[in-house]
UniProtKB/TrEMBL annotation:
UniProt xrefs under Gene3D superfamilies: 1.20.5.1930, Histidine kinase-like ATPase, C-terminal domain
Any GO MF annotation of the entry: kinase activity
Protein name: Signal transduction histidine kinase
Bilayer-spanning residue ranges: 26-45, 157-176, 188-217, 223-240, 252-276, 282-301, 308-329, 341-362, 374-392
UniProt cross-references to Pfam families, sorted A to Z: HATPase_c (PF02518)
Coiled-coil stretches: none
Keyword tags: Kinase, Membrane, Transferase, Transmembrane, Transmembrane helix, Two-component regulatory system
UniProt keyword annotation of Transferase present: yes
Lineage of the organism: Bacteria, Pseudomonadati, Pseudomonadota, Alphaproteobacteria, Hyphomicrobiales
Organism of this sequence: Bradyrhizobium algeriense
Length: 652
C-alpha cells in the first residue's frame, strides 16, 4: 500500500480514529527525532583520538590583561578582541637526550589565531593561513621545530592567542613531541574538519547546478530555484577566507562570509514552499537579518560585522531551523513521504549541532568544536536522497503509466482491428451493392429496353426483320455488359479492341468504313484505378457517337483516333476522337443539338457519361457547305482524366 492509499484509508475513518492515528504518528515521529538528537549528543561528547599523553603540555603561565597566573589547558578567554596585547601562554617541555627524530608542535583547536615560538624562535603563525582564521572552522595546526632550535632537556614554548571576535578566545590542549607520533592525529582532524567540508561544498555546488537546471525546466516549482540560490550562497561561504586587512575585495568577502542568515532564510523558504506553503507578502521579513549584515559589511567595518553576526546570524539560523523542524514535521504527518522524513531528520541533526555549538560559545562545553557547518552535510544528503527518491518514484509512475498505456493501446488496436474488419465488410457490401445497382441500371437501360422493343414488335405482328434487329441490339448490349466485367488491368485499350470489332460489324451493313488510328505508340495510358463502370460509360459514349453518325450523318467514313496528350500541368491524359465525314448539324450556344429532341437527349446522355468518369467531352459539327475551310461532319472528342474518380457520381 502506498502513501496515497494510506491517506485515502485514513480519510474513511471516523474523526476520533483519525485524531488518534495522527497522534500516534506524531508520537512516533517525535520519538524518532529524539533518538536522532540523543545519538548526535553522544557522538559530539566523544573525544577524537589524540597523540600519546606523555607529549601533552597542559601547565602554562598565562599573561592576560597584564595579569600573570597559572592555567591549565584547555582555556577559555573572556576577551573578544585582543590583537595588540594578546594573551600569552608560557610553558616548558622536555626533549630526551639523544633524540634523533624530528619534533613538532601540534595545536588541535584555537580561536582565532596563534603564534607559537620555541626557545624564543617563532615557528608558527596561523594568521598567514587564511583558512585557519575562520572561527566557525576547526582547522588544526602543526609546525615542525627546526633541529637548530631544539635543545636536549628543558625547552621553552610560548603561545600568543590573537582574538578578533565575534566570540571569545579559546586554546585547546597542545602536544610537543616526535612528528611521526603527532602527524596521524593532525591528518585525522584535517580530514574531518578541512577535507570533508571541501568535499561537501563541492557536492553543494553540484547540487546547486542540478537544482538550477530543474528550476529552469520546471518554472512552476519555485522551490527548486530558491534551494539552488541557497546552495550557491553556501558554496560562497565555504570557499571564501576571512580577510585580515582592508583589500579591494575584503568588503565583498565579509558580506559573503556573513551571509548565513540569507542562506538560512532561503532554506526556510524552500521548506515552506516544499510543504505546500504559498508565498505571502510578509515573507520578506525572514531576510531582514541577512540584509542588515550585508549593509554593515558594505558600509561598516569588519568589527561591526563580527558583532552583528553574533547577535543576528546565529539566532536567525536557530530560529530558521526550529521553523523548518515544525514545517517538516507537519508535512511528514500530512503527506507521509520519504522526502519530508529525510529532511526532518537532517534538520534535527543540524539543530542539535547548533545547540551544542551555542553551548560551546557560552563556555558550557568542555571543548570548542563547532559542528553546525559540518552537520549541513546531513541536509545535503537529505536533499540529494529526497530528490533521488522523487525521481525514482516519478520513474515508477512513468513505467506504470507506460504499462497502462501499452495495455490501453493494445486494447485500442484490437478494437481498431475489429472496427477495420467491420468497415471492410461494410465497404465490400457497399461495393457489391453499387455494382449490383450498376448492373441493374445497365441491364435496365440497355438490355431491358431492347427486350421491351422485341416484345412490342412481336405483339404488333411486325415483320421478323424488326424483331431480328432488336434482338441483335439486345445481344450487343448484353455482350457490352459482360465485356465490361472483365479484368483489363486498367488498360482501356483492351476494352477498345473489343469495341472496335463490334463497331466494325455495326458499320459493315451500312457500307461505312472504320478508320482506326493509334497516333501514339502506347495508345492510352494505363489507369490502375479503372473500374468496370468506367469502361461501360466510355464504351456506351462511343457507341452513341457511332450510332448518331450512322443514323443522322449519311457518312461514308468514320475515323477513330487514339492518342496520349500532355496537359498544361505536365500530366498525361488519354484522348479518343470519333469523327465522321457526313453532314453536320447546328449546335446551340449551350452545346445542345438544334432541332430534334431525340438528338438533343442523346447529346445530354453523352455529356452525363463523360462527367461520371471525370472526362471532358468536346463536340463540334459543321453543316455541309457552311464552312469549306473546316472539316465536314461531326467530331466527338473525349479527353480522359489523369485519374478516374472512385465513386460513380452522376453529373448533369
Amino acid at each position: 500500500m502506498n502513501d496515497h492509499d494510506e491517506d485515502a484509508t485514513a480519510e474513511q475513518l471516523p474523526a476520533r480514529e483519525r485524531r488518534r492515528l495522527q497522534s500516534s504518528r506524531l508520537i512516533q515521529y517525535l520519538l524518532l527525532q529524539a533518538m536522532i538528537a540523543g545519538a548526535c549528543v553522544l557522538a559530539l561528547l566523544q573525544s577524537l583520538p589524540g597523540p600519546p599523553a606523555q607529549y601533552q603540555v597542559t601547565a602554562f603561565n598565562l599573561t592576560e590583561a597584564r595579569v600573570e597566573r597559572a592555567v591549565t589547558l584547555p582555556y577559555f578567554s573572556s576577551l573578544r578582541n585582543a590583537m595588540n596585547d594578546p594573551p600569552r601562554f608560557s610553558g616548558q617541555f622536555v626533549r630526551p637526550a639523544g633524540e634523533a627524530r624530528a619534533w613538532s608542535v601540534f595545536l588541535p583547536r584555537f580561536t582565532n589565531g596563534v603564534e607559537v615560538s620555541v626557545n624564543d624562535v617563532v615557528i608558527l603563525d596561523s594568521r598567514r593561513d587564511p583558512a585557519a582564521n575562520r572561527p566557525d572552522r576547526n582547522t588544526p595546526a602543526i609546525a615542525v621545530i627546526p633541529a637548530s632550535v631544539l635543545r636536549d632537556g628543558d625547552n621553552a614554548i610560548a603561545i600568543r592567542l590573537f582574538i578578533w571576535g565575534p566570540i571569545t578566545g579559546f586554546l585547546d590542549r597542545i602536544w610537543v613531541g616526535p612528528d611521526e607520533l603527532l602527524r596521524p592525529t593532525y591528518d585525522l582532524r584535517t580530514l574531518i574538519f578541512v577535507t570533508l567540508p571541501v568535499v561537501f561544498s563541492s557536492w553543494q555546488a553540484i547540487l546547486a547546478v542540478i537544482l538550477g537546471i530543474m528550476w529552469v525546466m520546471r518554472r512552476h516549482e519555485p522551490a527548486y530555484g530558491v534551494l539552488a540560490a541557497a546552495m550557491a550562497v553556501g558554496v560562497g561561504q565555504a570557499f571564501l577566507q576571512t580577510p585580515m586587512g582592508e583589500t579591494p575585495f575584503s568588503r565583498l568577502n565579509v558580506i559573503l562570509i556573513s551571509s548565513a542568515p540569507i542562506e538560512s532564510g532561503l532554506v526556510l523558504t524552500f521548506a515552506l514552499l516544499f510543504s505546500g506553503w504559498k508565498w505571502q507578502r510578509y515573507g520578506w521579513i525572514i531576510f531582514i537579518p541577512g540584509v542588515l549584515l550585508a549593509l554593515a559589511g558594505l558600509f561598516g567595518n569588519q568589527a561591526m560585522v563580527r558583532a552583528l553576526f553574533l547577535y543576528l546570524a546565529v539566532p536567525m539560523v536557530g530560529v530558521s531551523l526550529l521553523i523548518i523542524a515544525v514545517v517538516t514535521a507537519r508535512s511528514m504527518l500530512e503527506r507521509r513521504n520519504v522526502a519530508s522524513l529525510l529532511l526532518g531528520c537532517a534538520v534535527t541533526i543540524m539543530l542539535t549541532c547548533w545547540v551544542v555549538d551555542l553551548l560551546s560559545v557560552f563556555q558550557m562545553m568542555p571543548n570548542r568544536i563547532f559542528t553546525a557547518r559540518l552537520s549541513y552535510s546531513a541536509m545535503l544528503v537529505a536533499i540529494g536522497a529526497g530528490l533521488t527518491w522523487r525521481f525514482a518514484r516519478a520513474l515508477n509512475e512513468v513505467d506504470g503509466f507506460a504499462g497502462h498505456l501499452v495495455t490501453q493501446v493494445r486494447d485500442a488496436e484490437e478494437k481498431l482491428k475489429a472496427s477495420f474488419v467491420r468497415e471492410e465488410e461494410r465497404a465490400r457490401a457497399a461495393a457489391l451493392a453499387r455494382e449490383r445497382t450498376r448492373l441493374m441500371r445497365d441491364l435496365h437501360d440497355g438490355l431491358g429496353g431492347q427486350l421491351v422493343s422485341i416484345v412490342a414488335l412481336s405483339e404488333r405482328g411486325n415483320g421478323s426483320a424488326g424483331i431480328g434487329d432488336a434482338a441483335r441490339a439486345a445481344l450487343k448490349d448484353l455482350r457490352l455488359v459482360i465485356d465490361s466485367m472483365d479484368d483489363i488491368g486498367g488498360d482501356l485499350m483492351l476494352a477498345l479492341g473489343s469495341w472496335r470489332e463490334r463497331a466494325t460489324a455495326q458499320l459493315r451493313p451500312h457500307d461505312i468504313a472504320l478508320d482506326w488510328r493509334a497516333v501514339t505508340a502506347q495508345g492510352l495510358p494505363v489507369h490502375p484505378e479503372l473500374r468496370p463502370w468506367h469502361v461501360i460509360q466510355i464504351v456506351r459514349l462511343l457507341d452513341e457517337a457511332v450510332t448518331n453518325a450512322v443514323k443522322h450523318a449519311n457518312a461514308r467514313r468514320i475515323t477513330v483516333r487514339i492518342e496520349t496528350l500532355a496537359g498544361a500541368d505536365g500530366l498525361d491524359r488519354g484522348c479518343i476522337t470519333v469523327e465522321d465525314d457526313g453532314q453536320g448539324f447546328e449546335i446551340t450556344s449551350d452545346g445542345a443539338a438544334a432541332g430534334a429532341i431525340k438528338a438533343a437527349r442523346g447529346l445530354r446522355n453523352m455529356r452525363s457519361r463523360a462527367a461520371r468518369c471525370g472526362a471532358e467531352l468536346e463536340l463540334s459539327s459543321c453543316a455541309q457547305g457552311t464552312d469549306q475551310e473546316s472539316h465536314q461532319g461531326t467530331r466527338v472528342r473525349l479527353t480522359l482524366p489523369h485519374r478516374f474518380p472512385d465513386s460513380d457520381g452522376v453529373a448533369g
